[in-house]
User: What shape does this take?
Amino acid sequence: MTLLRLTTALAATAVALAPSAGAQGDASPNAAVRAAIDRIKADNVWTIEQQISICEIPAPPFKEERRAAEMKKRFEALGLRNVRIDSIGNVIAERPGTGGGPVVVIAAHLDTVFPEETDVKVQRTGTLLKGPGIGDDCRGLAVLLAVAKAMGTANVRTQGTIYFVANVGEEGPGNLRGVKHLFAKPPAPKIDYFISVDGTGLGLTSRAVGSNRYKVSYKGPGGHSYGAFGMPSPIHAMGRAISKISAIQVPLRPKTTFNVGIVEGGTSVNTISPLGAMEVDLRSESPEELAKVDAAFRKAVDEALAEENARWPQSRVKVTVDVVSMGVRPAAAPPDSQRIIQTAQAAARALGFETPGSASSTDANWPMSLGIQAITLDGGGQGQGAHSTAESYDDGDRGWLGPQWALLTIVMLAGPR
Assistant: This one.
């Protein structure tokens, strides 16, 4: 990357995106910004050590406290201001601006999908790292630290205040509780831009895949498979529902999906189970299509119940069903013309790569649904096996591009001085 390429991209973006000349102040690059970008590359070994050591601190769902405490210490050591842990467990740190600029939040999530007893020791072979959560989202947390360190070392100043946030509750059971709390009780009167750093590669998430998750429990008195034969079965009702769900028709575009991911119930082979339960995940890039597949799912659940009870008309007992929401992530499709999307893409071009927008389910879903400009950036490198104990991250020879991209994007948004 040459300084000319960086200057040209930043200046062009400032002119194209500014509502009027001077509205965001002087948006031209300066030596400090370039020095910070170079510092990230020079400090890449340090960044990888942060990623490894963070990942070796367990952070199962709803038990992120140890990792949060360590991130707080590291934010403080890097000179960030007013570092604190809020009432839900998010770690929040500030890099005050000079005044008059937009407020930018850059965040990565603390939690993993793994239970507390999981071995989180990271194995290292050259640039390849293996360990649960090493990419999702230990890489994002390391990017936050790399960006904060580089900005401090190079004395990068911005007009707007930048908040660094290590948040709880991004993974499934957490139901975005960390970012929901952040926007319910924001650290500033107004958050103008939100960036989540989540995962690996150099992808840009500009649209939100919505999801509805449910636990469906069919219940009955149960009994002996021979002696009580003739009563409706919760497991048979669940089987009917799964068959109907599998037959739901969904569009290819916008992509819409359904899945029965977990089933449970039964006590023995010769028992009519008192319980047949399943966990269901419904997703779509479109709020309208998500609502349609949700309605089809609910119809399948109700029809299965009615059919199972009708199958045994002489039975004096009936099966019932409970449907409990396990989580809702709203879908959103902001226009590609948004300033935050254009800025991230201009920063990518300045660093020598192109990144079209894509759709995914991340912490950015929530602010998008509130009408706040939000995106998710990948953290660089290459990852495989996310959500498995065999998860890996390979930094390769350009892993530092991820934190460089995050730094350049937030500086452009906050307004360099």
Q: What stands out?
A: Residues 287-311 form the longest helix (25 residues). The chain has eleven helices and 18 strands. The two ends are 21 Å apart (CA to CA). The chain has two domains: 3-208+331-414, 210-328.
